Amino acid sequence: MVFDRAGRVVGSAYETHEQFYPEPGWVEHDAVEIWENTVAVVRDALEAADCAGSDLAAIGVTNQRETTVLWDRETGEPVAPAIVWQDRRTTERVERLEQEGRAPEIRRRTGLEPDAYFSATKLEWLLEEADPIEPDRSGPGVRERAEAGDLAFGTIDSWLVWKLTGEHVTDVTNASRTMLFDVHELAWDDDLLAEFSVPHAVLPEVRPSSDEAEYGRTDPDGLLGAAVPVTAALGDQQAALFGQCCFEAGEAKNTYGTGSFLLCNTGTEAVESDHGLLTTVAFQRSGEAPRYALEGSVFVTGAAVEWLTDVGLVEEAAETERLARSVDSPDGVYFVPAFTGLGAPHWDGRARGTIVGMTRGTGREHLVRATLEAIAFQTRDVVEAMAADAGPVESLQVDGGAVKNSFLCRLQADALGVPVVRPEVDETTALGAAYAAGLAVGYWDDLDDLRANHRVDRTFDPDPDAAVADRYDRWLEAVERAKGWAAD
Q1: For position 428, what pLDDT does the model report?
Q2: 65 is in an annotated binding site
Q3: What NCBIfam families does the record tag this protein with (predicted)?
Q4: E-assigned strands of 143-259?
């Protein structure tokens, strides 16, 4: 996406990439395909904006966090498929950490609840178990090559910055999602590296999210035909927080994508949660202290709507609003879309998708409405936990593809009992990366410039007479039935 000084989209392009499910609970991506699609959409977006690479002030990168890539420093090629954040293959490893009493110390250092969601166990698995993409390669194995410094690890931001600039870096927000990074010291943690047998030699340099010193520059003879500075990277949820201008403590946003992720800025204090939330780095600007956030991670929201299309209940996501409005309620049906386990505040990697309350009279419209309610109720789960840790959320900024559905936004406001605020630019994840990049090169002077750009499309006030809030307690009963289902 290409943005102008007013924060408006002047050019964009979009490309899907394939999801691979080689075994139950496994999710993989082809990092080469992601790079090739990146090249294609950059060219298409520039064409749509009617500008050249040399017209760009700076580049910012934002990415799905935790997805783990291991690649060869010499060839620049991945040594195995990327393991996606949703992947559950290391659940047993995480359970061993819990059994060994390691969880409290991991939470204290990293701010994270030990889970297969994060990068540490994914990287450990790659080093020990990966079948190389080039299986006939002779010589040392994956671990030996990593220890020798021949391989590089990164989340997708690192992979893309490497391909753009040749530099091996990440930012503090993505580092804080690896379960290898001390969020208080802002450094890789030696004890955790030892726990997961990760050699220092594979790790990227950790930099501020918005970096005046630049991560690197693009090759003038390459993709953009110019040496454009790459000056920012943020994990997608932190980027959305930044794009929503939630710069001060107490400001919160929820992004509805494949999953939903609610972040509340806690300022320069890393607040520890007693209610199943994560403590994470929100952002850091050059020369400044980091800002922190509490986060509630819901693994499946938009992916639940995608499932509705996969199984033929709807033809496209836009159809869900019409179908949900066609009935007064889900008629007693509750859907817990725990396809890859439950995230905050439940943290059950063995939970699985569950539908309860169906009768012979249940139709697809009831299932569709129950799916949208599930999205709203999972967010309420997180808001309740956040209120217990840091005080009540007075309003909620929302963004992501799903917020185009006004029925969902109305449902969310009613479920929470607080206003839900939708911005004009709902792609705030990309906007946050652009803001961070532009600040680093002086394209925008300060945070006040960004606040001046923030425009509200619509505010959804809660209806005190809505019945949806009364269904929440039964929703929690349905969640209990979903827990612990997957025995292996």
Answers
A1: 87
A2: yes
A3: glycerol_kin, PRK00047.1
A4: 151-154, 169-171, 181-182, 187-188, 205-207, 216-217, 229-235, 252-256
Q: If you average pLDDT over residues 134-150, what whole number do you get?
A: 77
Q: Judge whether residue 237 has pLDDT over 60.
A: yes
The verdict on whether residue 93 carries a ligand-binding annotation is: no
What pairs with residue 267 in β-bridges? 292
CATH of domain 2-235: 3.30.420.40
The domain limits of the chain are 2-235
CB contact burial 382-414 (16+ within 10 A = b; e otherwise): bbbbbeebbeebeebbbbbebbebeebbbbbbb
Strands (E), 31-167: 59-63, 69-72, 82-83, 151-154
Q: What does the buried/exposed string (b/e) look like for 249-272 if buried means 16 or more CB atoms within 10 Å of the residue's CB?
A: bebbbbbbbbbbbbbbbbbeebbe
340, amino acid identity: T
SS3 (DSSP) at 265: strand
- Residue 291 pLDDT > 90: yes
75 is in an annotated binding site: no
CA angle 211, 212, 218 (to 5 degrees): 80
Contact 291/274 with Cβ under 8 angstroms? Answer: no
pLDDT tens by residue, 169-185: 999 999 999 999 999 99
* Of 296, 470, 482, the residue nearest 379 (C-alpha): 296
Flag whether 96 is marked binding: no
- Is 110 labelled a binding residue? no
| DSSP type of residue 205 | E
pLDDT of residue 32 exceeding 80: yes
228, amino acid identity: V
Q: Can you tell me the mean pLDDT for 217-226?
A: 94
**149 marked as part of a ligand binding site:** no
Q: pTM of the prediction?
A: 0.84
Is 256 known as a binding-site position? no
- Helix, strand and coil in the chain, % to nearest 5: 35, 20, 45
Q: Give me the helices (H) in 236-290, please.
A: 236-243
Q: Would the annotation count 363 as a binding residue?
A: no
